[in-house]
Design a protein that fits this description.
This protein has 2 domains: about 10-170, no CATH class; about 265-394, Heat Shock Protein 90, CATH 3.30.565.10. About 60% of the residues lie in helices and about 10% in strands. The protein has helices spanning about 10-35, 40-50, 60-75, 85-95, 100-120, 125-210, 215-240, 265-275, 295-315, 340-345, 350-365, and strands at about 280-285, 320-325, 330-335, 365-370, 380-385. The longest helix is centred in the middle third of the chain and has 86 residues, at about 125-210. It catalyses: ATP + protein L-histidine = ADP + protein N-phospho-L-histidine.
Length: about 400
């Protein structure tokens, strides 16, 4: 805001009003000045005609009217109806001009009062001169003050409107950001579900194909595991995809808890992986405690992703261990294997799984370190504090 009220015709009604005002005052000014000799009519026209543009060019109109008034003073022409134009232009520049222009116009107006009294009341006694000086000064200041108050009020209203518009833009931006974050979360969930499910299905399919001739019962068991895993993954993925249907789904309540897996579901997850043929040791250290839903979900997904990577990269005969340690201030999750996954992980591409684990841990205020072990194999260590960072949401 520069302190300038936008000077323009906002409607045909404003334009018509200015036309009637300028035309009417000019007509009556010329009529009343016809009895005066010489330049009276021209001077009235010079002070009243420009009023048509008082909104769009307040400073220029005030300068023209003031210059015409000085010409009147130099010519010795008495005060007349056309001098009303000075008050109208003073009001206009106070409303539509900036602060500097408005105050300068007030000073010019007060100088005009002194000039008028010194020219037209020289024969009066000092009391009458003082009275006229006070009356004209009060009139000029009153007109200016009314215009200044209107300008200030218009600026205040404009600032309120701008603030309301900014708040609305901020609300829309936050809403879009929340939707984007929610979609990112759902995409991460879908990746974890699909990657884990497909890894188990691939391992079972390979094992079933190998045992189809030698051990039909083992092949049937592998096919059953593939079917159960596929159905479970499909069911969970359908639930997540349902959240993306904005047109048919009601707006999500951020305060409403969503049913998500946690550390209590880890034994079931590990059992499914064991059924896929991977040897997994599961151990819990420390005293288990109730965890926030977000922290439990983060720990579950990290273990799930770690086991998925082991299935994909560790190779046959690999052994895996999952350790949960309930410390004093944080939960430590360790997933290790003794396979050949370190060679597969040496690529420059960290993969979506590792990036997802680090993002989850970061949201929970924790960290994830992953890489080859010194004695061979691969290791994932996640440290997740119990106290979630301020603003952390599921």
């Amino acid at each position: 805001m520069t302190g300038i009220v936008e000077a323009r015709w906002t409607s045909r009604r404003d334009m018509a009003f200015d036309l009637v005002l300028a035309g009417g005052l000019t007509f009556f000014g010329v009529i009343f000045s016809m009895a005066q000799a010489g330049l009276a009519g021209v001077i009235s026209l010079g002070m009243l005609g420009p009023l048509l543009f008082r909104r769009t060019h307040p400073a220029q109109v005030f300068a023209i009217c003031s210059g015409t008034a000085v010409l009147q003073w130099l010519a010795g022409i008495d005060l007349m109806f056309g001098n009303v134009g000075l008050l109208v232009t003073l009001y206009a520049i106070a409303v539509y001009g900036n602060v500097k222009q408005s105050r300068l116009a007030l000073g010019v107006g007060m100088c005009g009062v002194l000039m008028a009294v010194s020219r037209y009341y020289t024969e009066s006694d000092w009391r009458q001169q003082f009275t006229m000086l006070f009356a004209f000064g009060a009139l000029v200041f009153g007109v200016w003050a009314i215009g200044e108050r209107r300008r200030t009020r218009a600026l205040y209203v404009a600032q309120l409107e701008e603030r309301a518009a900014q708040l609305e833009r901020d609300r829309d931006r936050e809403s879009k950001l929340a939707v984007s974050n929610e979609r990112t979360r759902i995409a991460r969930e879908i990746h974890d579900v699909v990657a884990h499910g497909l890894s188990i299905m691939i391992v079972q399919a390979d094992g079933g194909l190998y045992a189809a001739d030698a051990n039909p019962d083992q092949a049937k068991k592998a096919l059953a595991t593939i079917g159960d895993t596929g159905r479970a993954s499909l069911t969970e993925m359908r639930k997540m995809l349902g959240l993306l249907k904005q047109d048919s789904q009601p707006e999500l309540d951020p305060d409403q808890p969503r049913p998500q897996p946690g550390v209590s579901q880890l034994p079931e997850l590990i059992e499914n992986v064991r059924n896929a043929g991977l040897t997994v040791d599961y151990q819990v250290r420390g005293t288990p405690r109730d965890l926030p839903a977000l922290l439990g979900l983060t720990a579950y997904r990290i273990v799930q992703e770690g086991l998925t990577n082991t299935l994909k990269h560790a190779g046959p005969g690999a052994h895996t261990s999952v350790d949960l340690e309930y410390g004093r201030e944080m939960l430590t999750v360790v997933v290790t294997d003794d396979g050949r996954g370190a060679a597969a992980a040496s690529s420059n591409d960290p993969g979506h799984g590792l990036v997802g684990m680090r993002q989850r841990a970061s949201i929970s205020g924790g960290t994830v370190n992953a890489g080859p072990r010194a004695g061979g194999g691969y290791e994932v260590i996640a440290r997740l504090p119990y106290d979630l960072p301020t603003g952390g949401t599921q």
